[in-house]
Amino acid sequence: MVKFVSLATLVCALSVTTVSAKEMQDHNQMMNHGDGHLMDMDGGMVMGQNTDTLPGGCDKIAATKEITVHAGHKYSEKFPGTMFAFDQQEFQFEPCTKLTVHFINEDEIRHQWMMHGLPKYLYPKGMFHLEVSGPGKVSGTLILPPGDKTYLVHCDIAQHMEKGMKAQLKVGKGSEDLPSIPGVTAAIFPDDYSGRPYDPKLDAPAPSTTVAAPVVAAAPTPAPVVDDSIVSGTTVIGLAIGFIAAPWLAKRFKGMSAGEIIATVLEQVAHGVGYVIQLIGKLIKMVSGKNVIALPDK
Question: What is the pLDDT of residue 169?
Answer without folding.
Answer: 98
